[in-house]
Amino acid sequence: MTITAGLATLASSVGLYPLFESGRWFWAALGSVLAVAGGGLLVRRFRLPAVVNPLGGLAALLVYLTVVYAPGQALLWCVPSPASLRHLADLAGDGWDSANRYAAPVPLVPGIALLAAAGVGIVAVLVDLLAVRLRRAAPAGLPLLAMYSVPAAVRDDSVSWLAFGVGALGYLALLMSDSREQVGGWGRTVTTRRTSDEVPMAGAEAPPEEVPARPDASALAASGRRIGVGAVAVAVLLPMAVPGIQPRGLFGMGGRSGHGTQTVTTPDPLVSLKRELTRTDESVVLTYRTNDPAGPDYLRLYALDRFDGDRWTYSALQSSSKDRLTERAIPPPPGLEGAPTHEVTTTVKVNSKVKNMTFLPVPYAPAEVMIKGDWRVHPQSLMVYSLRDSAGGRAYTVRSLRAQPTGSGLSAARYYPADIVSRYTSVPKNVPPEVRKLAQQITGGSTTAHAQAVRLQTWFTQTGGFAYDLSAPAPQHGSDLVDFLLHSKRGYCEQFAAAMALLARIVGIPSRVAMGYTPGSETGRGEWTVRSRDAHAWPELYFEGAGWVRFEPTPSGTAGQGTATTPIYSQPAVPGSGRTDSSTDPSPSTSSTPDDSSSSSGARPRHRLDDEGPEGAPVGKDDDGNRFAATPWLAGGLLTLLLLAVPMALRAFSRRRRWAALASAPAAKRPAPAAPGPDPASAAPGGPALDSTYAAHAAWREMRADALDHGLQWSSSDSPRAAARHLGELLELDDAGTEALTRIARAEELARYSRSRPTERPERLRADVRTVREAFAQSVGRRARWRARLLPPSTLAQVTATLRTAGTHAAEAADRLNELPARIRRRP
User: Fold this and answer.
1) In terms of Cα–Cα distance, which of 369, 348, 341 is closest to 549?
2) Cα–Cα distance for residue pair 493/437, rounded to 1 Å
3) Do residues 416 and 383 touch, judged by C-beta distance below 8 A?
4) Which parts of 175-245 are beta strand (E)?
5) What is the rounded distance in angstroms from the CA atom of residue 312 to the CA atom of residue 538?
6) Cis peptide before 475 (omega within 30 of 0)
7) Mean pLDDT: which of 83-87, 230-234, 555-559, 621-625 is highest?
8) According to the lineage, what is the superkingdom (predicted)?
9) Which terminus has fewer CB within 10 Å in the chain: N or C?
10) Kindly report the CA angle at 592 between 588 and 593, in degrees rounded to 5?
11) Domain residue spans of the chain
């Protein structure tokens, strides 16, 4: 039971795989389970009270965690000490903070690995107590099920059926092992006698002798079925009636009225950014059409307004029913009063494969969103979100107001509202002094906020020596930002946007970080396609009269984010033109690369070079816009053919092995050659005669397999003579086939029942098997012949028998392992 309980815990822990980026957590969990099992065995070995059993498991778990995560602070690297306990507590606190900061799957930092190992270990303690010590295997399923509730709570798609099936098999094995020990303790199974109720007539044969039978379990089976049906009904109907599980109550008729205030909680939006950028499948996220004469703009998901010293996040959103799109108009964008604007209509269709998109990608600033479902708007940031719906598979229309600021207009902005200053210019005290000094150095000499912003952007894209690198690790601490700004200068859009927004706040410009998608690529006929590689983050700076204005510090083109565009109002003046940073009509920078020359604001984003063929012809694409690749289809077809060939290959291997073993198996049993005489076969009964016996059995098994492959009836209880007679009645054999069938049956009959050995030579019997196989093929239809060649049923029967034998051996080994502690205790 100890071994089965540990295996059941490990099997159920497989359901935690969606929570972690790598599989190394499983080995930490394996160590925890082994430690708990050892502690439980030790407590039971000394026959301590049941209340001590969990204490022993927890003590063993603590020793294991100390050895793995705090050996330097422990006594002799394994004995827990106050210093090691403090180190484990600090590490667990870091892991808890990281788990709340990241979205699943989370990186396996030491703190998170410690929490995973400790959590699985605690479940192992409970299972060991309930199933092994208290002999209550059924309630032990509750802590096992608790491990599945964690991924189900943080992910919409929960765990795969395969992972759930592995855990279910572990739990069933625990129940079977417990019942086996419970019943085995009573001795041998009591059986009943079953006799015939019929009275034989005079002269009729006597009824058969009474035979043992299993106990009548029909009543127990009926009770089990009723309990199972009732449990399934409760599991299906109860969640519909509980408002906490089903927000609208039973069948959607009731539940909460929705008039209260609810905090919107979502995973960290920047966590999934790199995952989207580094995906190799370039999956389609959405497609859209727009009537914007200046070309499509970025589609924004989030506006991150709070910097905590390590990362950018957004403040908690308090949502109420008045924020629904159907109950109120979207508020006007803040600060947009003096800049020229025009109205844009965008029709968006999100791919149905997109999961957990609870924020809508919309052009800024949305004025009206037409979409089905419970969608709401945050008045301050104009983010559109839902508490229970996802955008995957939905189509919606957005009417937005797009500003067209100019350099002179932004340079004329002088004042900021008090609420904007207090919320969007705060900088944590733990920002290093060298970062503050760097911001002042870059913007030194600029007379306006717009000139400062342009210099910051230019420093990132041109003069600062930065490079776009998707292999750079995601920033997790303030030291990572310092390293990016002062040392490595390599990163992707998250680092560029976060760094520029922070430097802008340091010099007094209200700023925040936006996240969403670039315009993507035009796929023809006025439709644009946005893929996972178009995920992007950028800074938004506030200027009175224009509101929130987008800047682009991330390099674009082939050396950066491929579909990013640089707004024309944010580009520096052309050297020698006599204009300053605040000129009224700046032109694109001459330092732009040829690949980036067409990426200015007001121009349509160019296509990626790899979307076109050598002559500019488009590469063939499927209906979703994905490029057609023959390699996956060829690989899939080859794999299918290989799988279909497995039964045929197993049948050929079995036939070859059966005849190959004929020559080698009896060799060890064969005596030394006898003296030469007139009849070697009779002089050496252990030689050719023994070969003939093995050949008879091999020929009989081979003929039986051929009969099963061709769909012919074969009763395992028939004698060789009866089976041959039955086959002769089914088949229309010629003289050669009849003689071959008779020889095979005669040889098997002699090998089974007679003291004299078969006289047929192995080569003759092998030829007779081929003759009978041809007769089988001629007696059945074409479909049965092809099934016998490609999908022989005898292979499935052989595999089933092998698995059954392996299962019996495994059960016997488990019984021996379970009896090992008892044998050890009985030793003097």
Assistant:
1) 341
2) 23
3) no
4) 192-194, 211-213
5) 12
6) no
7) 83-87
8) Bacteria
9) C
10) 140
11) 2-184, 271-611, 648-664+682-802
CA angle, residues 514, 517, 518, in degrees to nearest 5: 105
Query: Which residue type, as a one-letter code, is found at position 812?
Result: E
Residues 71/78, Cβ–Cβ less than 8 Å: yes
Q: Nearest-CA neighbor of 333 among 393, 379, 388?
A: 379
The rounded distance, in Å, linking the Cα atoms of 392 and 356 is 8
CA distances from 808 to 804, 813, 818 (A): 6, 9, 15
Q: 3-state SS string over 655-677?
A: HHHHHHHHHHHHHHCCCCCCCCC
Phi, psi dihedral angles at 46 (to 5 degrees): -90, 10
Q: How far apart are CA 142 and CA 126, in angstroms?
A: 9
Measured over the CA atoms of residue 468, residue 469, residue 472 and residue 476, the dihedral's sign is: positive
Q: List the beta bridge partners of residue 306.
A: 313
Buried b (16+ CB within 10 A) or exposed e, 725-761: ebbeeebebeeebbebbbbbbbbbbbbeeeeebbebe
Question: Which burial class, exposed, middle or buried, applies to 561 when counting CB atoms under 10 A from its CB (0-12, 13-18, 19+)?
Answer: buried
Identify the top-confidence range among 128-142, 252-266, 269-283, 379-393.
379-393
- State the Cα–Cα distance between residues 341 and 414, nearest whole angstrom: 20
Contact 338, 351 (CB under 8 A): no
What are the structure tokens assigned to 260, written together?
Answer: 């209260």
Mean pLDDT of 368-382: 89
Strands 467-468 and 490-491: parallel
**Contacts of residue 345, Cβ cutoff 8 Å, sequence gap at least 6:** 290, 291, 397, 398, 399, 400
CATH number of 648-664+682-802: 1.10.357, 3.30.460, 2.30.30, 1.20.120? 1.20.120
More confident residue, 692 or 609: 692
pLDDT computed for residue 786 by the predictor: 83
Q: Is the pLDDT of residue 87 over 50?
A: yes
Tell me if 710 sits within 8 A of 788, measured CB to CB.
yes
pLDDT computed for residue 657 by the predictor: 76
Side chain identity, residue 588: P
Please identify which residue in the block is written with the tokens 């009573």.
Answer: 186
Enumerate residues 6+ apart whose C-beta is below 8 A from 386: 358, 373, 374, 375, 376
Please, are residues 450 and 411 in contact by the beta-carbon 8 Å criterion?
yes
Q: Where are the beta strands (DSSP E) in 108-252?
A: 192-194, 211-213
Q: Which amino acid is at 703?
A: M
Residue 118 burial (C-beta neighbours within 10 Å; 0-12, 13-18, 19+): buried
614 contacts: CB under 8 Å, gap ≥ 6? none
As a residue count, the chain comes to 828
Which range of 21-25, 228-232, 485-489 scores highest in mean pLDDT? It is 485-489
| Contact between 59 and 39 (Cβ < 8 Å) | yes
Contact 99, 112 (CB under 8 A): yes
CATH fold match for the domains 271-611 and 648-664+682-802: no
> Could you tell me which CATH number the domain at 271-611 has?
3.10.620.30
DSSP state letters, 12-43: HHGGGGGGBSSTTHHHHHHHHHHHHHHHHHHH
Mean pLDDT, range 539-558, rounded to an integer: 91
**pLDDT over 90, % of the chain:** 13
Residue 714's SS3 state is coil
Per-residue pLDDT, 541: 94
Query: Can you give the pLDDT at residue 581?
Result: 43
Q: For residue 190, is pLDDT > 70? A: no
Q: Please, how many CA atoms are within 13 Å of residue 274, restricted to the half-sphere of its CB?
A: 20
